[in-house]
């Protein structure tokens, strides 16, 4: 009997394919991947690591668009079916609190989440080094930048989809100025999206799973379920040919989300297909968004592939959660509150 329930809205029109019989593990790829190919709009050479949400009669997304000069910015994309995307040719116009233009110097790895009646974009921006940028919109026309949550260096921010005890929750991975030779996931909270504190350690890299020995980072916004917050994340290992980015899964306590209840020691998806193993950066799977149909528990996972494409994968919430529990290995003080 299915006793695992998922919070949130029904999205019956979201993409879905049944699990192929030969699929291994609880996550399987969309057969027509990638969903965003190379050169998807004039001046844009690659789109990857991007986030989508339901919007009006269809879907809208914030896409990491790498220009023909190699610099990344955020562009909106529109779709009726969340599979065929039309990417805007101009970047998202950001303004400050007074309505004046306030464009980021660069922008990458966006996450997009709706909290109450507002959509928030969090991304990696420049602030004397890589830092988290934050902006809000209610209509996908006006995008107001808010204060950057943290000092540099921090490139990986993920907001929870609802307030917890009246506060916004943010997962992030503080780092150094380089390509992060270390990295655990931390949790911070804020009453107003300006002041952040009560920092807690959530998850360590490492454990038996060698695929996540170098660093880990949050992926899509956590999904609220009866078993806890389902967190899809990325883990990185270092090989003699460079880094390999895979997808992992964990379940955080609903009341105390800095506690890890379960965490699969196995990756959920690792680079295998040509669009994941060959691209601008080979061997990267970087999940940034999900669409979740709460009544059926269907999950569509959008991930960047090889820093070149947007890929799509599917999972069924109860199967995924059961797998994470069955293969769980919590690492170090993962199960603790993570207080300083
Ligand atoms: C990370 C980020 C991601 C990128 C990944 C692999 O540090 O910069 O944007 O997908 O590296 O290159």
UniProtKB/TrEMBL annotation:
InterPro entries reported for this sequence: Glyco_hydro_beta-prop_sf (IPR023296), Mannoside_phosphorylase (IPR007184)
Family annotation (Pfam families): Glyco_hydro_130
SUPFAM superfamilies hit by this protein: Arabinanase/levansucrase/invertase
Molecular function GO terms recorded: glycosyltransferase activity
Source organism superkingdom: Bacteria
Transmembrane annotation, as ranges: none
Family: Belongs to the glycosyl hydrolase 130 family.
Protein name: Glycosylase
Species per Swiss-Prot/TrEMBL record: Spirochaeta lutea
